[in-house]
Design brief:
The protein is an alpha/beta fold. It has three domains: 206 residues, EreA/ChaN-like  fold (3-Layer(aba) Sandwich); 72 residues, no CATH class; 128 residues. 48% of the residues lie in helices and 14% in strands. It is built from 16 helices and ten strands. Strands 1, 2, 3, 4, 5, 6, 7 and 10 form an eight-stranded mixed beta sheet that branches. A hairpin with an 8-residue loop joins strand 5 and strand 6. Helix 1 crosses helix 15, helix 8 packs antiparallel against helix 10 and helix 9 runs parallel beside helix 11. The longest helix is centred in the first third of the chain and has 42 residues. The chain is globular and about 70 Å long. The chain starts with a helix and ends in a 6-residue tail after the last strand.
Length: 450
């Protein structure tokens, strides 16, 4: 009778010992992994205090056709400064032909006219990017492009282009589609002026969408309540323009090519908003596929020997297959481009920070604020880099960095246009597979909006 309680006590003691031992083993494994990462960072970091320190990265880029430059926020001065520095070098000494940014096609194309010194932009006479940007109708979040760093880069690119014939001038293009209404208005104006016979049917198709309260957002609500999908209507203008171009849109005159690109914005935007009403990744993927396809169309437009630079958030350029995005079926430009063009033709550079300040907003559509970036989680990549004592540095990843513990996912910080610390977003990431290189800053400063 007295033995049974003692046996039960021994079993619980054994169970407790096993739990503690298991927890200790897991903790030891985590600690060993963290130590491995810190040792890797300390041994592989390259200095980055002046532009000349980027030379090893240019060697790694070699003859690759596409260079994707990321950012872990949409409002950090250092990211814009170093992306501009890298872009100047690639354009000046490596024959890169165009820059594609995470901005709306229609809005950014007006900046393209500016940097190429086309007479259609009123501010070309003064050559002042700041005046142009302050008066430019770019949607919220305006600070992404209406800021001192981007203005400096546009002024440099305009001066660089002024010494070259039009065919050799480097342009800036948007490959996003978050403001489809402006693109639709552009397409309607093109049909009214250039193809009046087809204008009525295109206008009728587009106004089916534009007549909803809040336009595309109203359309999404219409779908939720079982309304008719308007995918054929939104695809009509793109099809008519494609037919007119005889299947060779890359060789079209400038006005017709621009109209077709804007028509494709409307077509893909419909797919994005339809996807938003469904369970799954289709809304995100519609945007990602548009960015990828738009980039490839730009490359084709610029010729077989053209080379392109992309500025976009890490979430878009860092290969989604090396993150938990793949678990949700989500793709992005980096992943799609590595598949379509091959990894040897794509170089992806990520950016990250431990702490500092950033321009962001506390909620969607609200005004911009300078917000303190709180120290990163100690177990994140940024946390381990901080613990390694690295203030600023460049990392380049080869096959030796893609094995063993370095293939274990770890959190990487991601700050978007909305930032409400202490609420933080982190993406489980295999850093050395997500990127070909990485630039880290221990502390960063906010952009200076115009």
């Amino acid at each position: 009778m007295l033995c049974k309680p003692r046996q039960r006590i021994r079993r619980w003691q054994l169970l407790l010992i096993l739990v503690v031992a298991l927890g200790s083993a897991v903790a030891a494994k985590v600690q060993a992994s963290e130590q491995h990462y810190r040792a890797f960072f300390e041994s592989s970091v390259l200095p980055l205090s002046e532009p000349a320190h980027l030379a090893p990265m240019y060697d790694a880029i070699g003859e690759r056709r596409f260079v994707l430059l990321g950012e872990s926020t949409h409002g950090t001065h250092e990211y814009y400064h170093w992306r501009a520095e890298i872009s100047r070098e690639l354009i000046t000494n490596h024959d890169f032909s165009f820059i594609a940014v995470e901005g709306d096609w229609h809005a950014i194309y007006q900046l393209n006219d500016f940097v190429k010194l086309r007479d259609s932009v009123e501010d070309n006479a003064s050559g002042d990017a700041r005046t142009l940007l302050r008066n430019h109708a770019i949607r919220w979040p305006r600070w992404m492009w209406i800021n001192e760093d981007f203005a400096d880069f546009l002024d440099w690119l305009r001066a660089h282009n002024a010494e070259r014939p039009m065919a050799q001038r480097v342009g800036v293009f948007g490959i996003d589609m978050q403001d489809p209404q402006d693109s639709m208005e552009h397409v309607l104006a093109w049909f009214q002026h250039n193809d009046p016979s087809n204008y009525p049917q295109v206008a009728d198709a587009y106004h089916r969408m534009l007549d909803f309260p809040e336009e595309f957002r109203g359309y999404a609500q219409h779908l939720v309540y079982g309304g008719e999908r308007l995918n054929n209507q939104m695809a009509l203008a793109a099809k008519l323009l494609h037919d007119q171009l005889g299947g060779n849109p890359a060789d079209a005159d400038k006005a017709t090519w621009v109209a077709r690109e804007n028509a494709l914005v409307a077509k893909r935007a419909e797919a994005q908003f339809h996807g938003a009403t469904q369970l799954g990744p289709e809304s995100w993927n519609a945007r990602a596929r548009f960015m990828h396809e738009s980039l490839l169309r730009l490359a084709k437009r610029h010729g077989e020997e053209s080379r392109g630079i992309v500025w976009a958030h890490n979430t878009h350029v860092g290969d989604s297959a090396a993150t938990n995005m793949s678990n949700r079926g989500e793709v992005n430009i980096g992943h799609l481009l590595r598949i379509s063009e091959g990894e040897d033709d794509v170089f992806i550079l990520g950016f990250g920070t431990y702490q500092g300040s950033v321009i962001a907003s506390p909620s969607w559509g609200e005004g911009q604020q300078e917000i303190a970036v709180v120290p990163a989680h100690p177990e994140s990549y940024e946390g381990l880099l901080h613990q390694s004592g690295i203030q600023q540095g460049l990392f380049l990843f080869d096959d030796t960095a893609r094995q063993g513990d370095l293939l274990a996912p770890r959190h990487q910080r991601a700050i978007g246009v909305i930032y409400t610390p202490p609420n933080e977003a982190y993406v489980p990431t295999i850093l050395t597979r997500r990127y070909d290189g990485f630039i880290y800053f221990d502390e960063t400063q906010a952009l200076n909006p115009l």
